[in-house]
Amino acid sequence: MKPWESFRFCPRCGAAAATAERLVPFRCVACEFTLFFNPVVGVAGIIRRPDGAILLLRRAKDPAKGKLGVPGGFVDFGESAEDGLRREAREEVGLQLDAVEFFLSHPNQYTYRDVTYGVLDFYFTARVELTQSAQALDEVESFVWLQPAAISSDELAFPSLRHAIQRYCERFAPSV
Q1: For 7-158, where are the alpha helices, taking DSSP H only?
Q2: Please, are residues 68 and 155 in contact by the beta-carbon 8 Å criterion?
Q3: What CA–CA distance (Å, rounded) separates 127 from 87?
C-alpha cells in the first residue's frame, strides 16, 4: 500500500475522502487542506578503511533482515544529510566518520508495517582510521569489512545499495 492510499479521512478536519481514488497530493474537498506525499530522505555511508575495505552490516530487522547494508537511515527534522549519516554511524556501529563526501543519490522504496514509502537515498563516502573499532549496535546483527570487488550484489539489502556499490566499484575500486 502506498502512503496516500491509507488516507480515508482528512487529517485536518476529519471529513471522509471524496472519492475512492487517492490522489497525490491529497486534497480535502471540505476544508481544502492539501497534503503532499514527497519521498522521505535516507542517508547511507560507504565507509572505507585505509586499506580500501568497506563496512557492511548484516541487518537485524526487516525490511531485508539478514541481508547486507551500510550504516544509514532516515534524516531527522532539522538535521543535514551529513549529520544524519554521522548520527546513524554512531548509533549503528559506534564510529566517528572522517571526510564525509556526497557520492550519489538514488530512488528507493522502503516497506514498513505494510506501507511502502518512497525514499530518496543520499549515499556518501567516508573514512575511518584503523584505530577505531566498529561494534554491532542498534539494529545490526553483525558486520564485516570487505574489499569492494568481493561484495556479492545478491547479498545486498536494497536496489539503491546495489546501484551505489556498483558505481563505487566503477569509480574507486581500481584506485584503492
Answers
A1: 81-93
A2: yes
A3: 15
pTM metric for this prediction? 0.86
9 secondary structure, DSSP code: B
Hey, where are the domains in the chain? 1-37, 40-175
Count CB-CB contacts under 10 A for residue 170: 10
Tell whether domain 40-175 is in CATH 3.30.70.2740: no
Between the alpha carbon of residue 158 and those of residues 12, 70, 77, 106, 111, the distances in Å are 35, 10, 24, 11, 11
Phi, psi of 162 (to 5 degrees): -60, -45
Taking only the tens place, the pLDDT of each residue in 108-123 is 998 888 888 899 999 9
Nearest to residue 160, comparing CAs of 52, 82, 46? 46
Q: Is the preceding peptide bond at 25 cis, omega within 30 degrees of 0?
A: yes
